[in-house]
Amino acid sequence: MKDYKALLTTDSDYHIFNRAVGGEKIFAIPENYSYFLLLFEKYIVPLADVFCYCLLPNHFHFFIRTKDGQTLGEEMKRLDYKHADSEAQNPAFILQQFSNFFNAYTKALNKQQHRKGKLFMEPFNRRCVTTPEYHIKLIHYIHANPVHHGFCKSVDQLVV
Q1: Dist. CA 140–CA 35, nearest whole Å
Q2: Domains: count for the chain
Q3: In a domain? residue 139
Q4: CA 120 and chain centroid, separation
Q5: With bands split at pLDDT 50, 70 and 90, how would you rate the model's confidence at 4?
Q6: Could you tell me which of 17, 158, 155, 34 has the C-alpha nearest to residue 98?
Q7: Which of 20, 77, 99, 132 has its CB 3.0 to 4.6 Å from that of 24, i.e. a possible disulfide?
Q8: At residue 1, does pLDDT exceed 50?
Q9: What SS3 class is residue 56?
């Protein structure tokens, strides 16, 4: 059985993905993509390195590697996280930062689009990437996702 709710631990690789509720669009206008990435940089980049990502109108994919415990501890202290001295809190902290990221984006989009309520399916999906073969397949899958969903005809048409 696939584990789409893997615990996010330090020094680990993950496929993070989610979609909008009810087939809605996550990105209503082109500027929404940049704002989403700006928030990703604020909340997630201090905790994880990014191998690749794909943003589509109604869903997204990220392939990330979480940072080491010391780096996460420093980030928890910088943000004055309530359990900054406990490495056991790293998974909770990572999840909290993802929650903060998704909530910040949802509030901004709701305000911009005069909408209310949830934007994303909850909780977000994540799978631990454990083998080199899975790394390769996942990078291909993420890059080919716009082709699969008909947004372009080939990977070389992608906008970077």
Answers
A1: 25
A2: 1
A3: yes
A4: 11
A5: low
A6: 17
A7: 20
A8: no
A9: strand
Q: 51 is in which domain, residue-wise?
A: 13-157
**CATH code, domain with 119:** 3.30.70.1290
Q: What's the mean pLDDT in 127-146?
A: 93
Alpha-helix runs per DSSP H in the chain: 30-43, 69-78, 90-113, 132-148
What's the mean pLDDT in 18-25? 93
Give the whole-angstrom CA distance, residue 90 versus residue 81. Answer: 11
1 inside domain: no
- Residues counted in the chain: 160
Are the beta carbons of 158 and 143 closer than 8 angstroms? yes
Residue 95 lies in a domain: yes
Take residue 65 and report the two structure tokens written for it: 């590697």
Half-sphere exposure of 37 (CA within 13 A, CB side): 13
Residue 11 identity (one-letter amino acid) = D
pTM above 0.70, yes or no: yes
Q: Is residue 8 part of a domain?
A: no
User: 48: buried, middle or exposed (CB in 10 Å: 19+, 13-18, 0-12)?
Assistant: buried
Q: Is the pLDDT of residue 155 over 80?
A: no
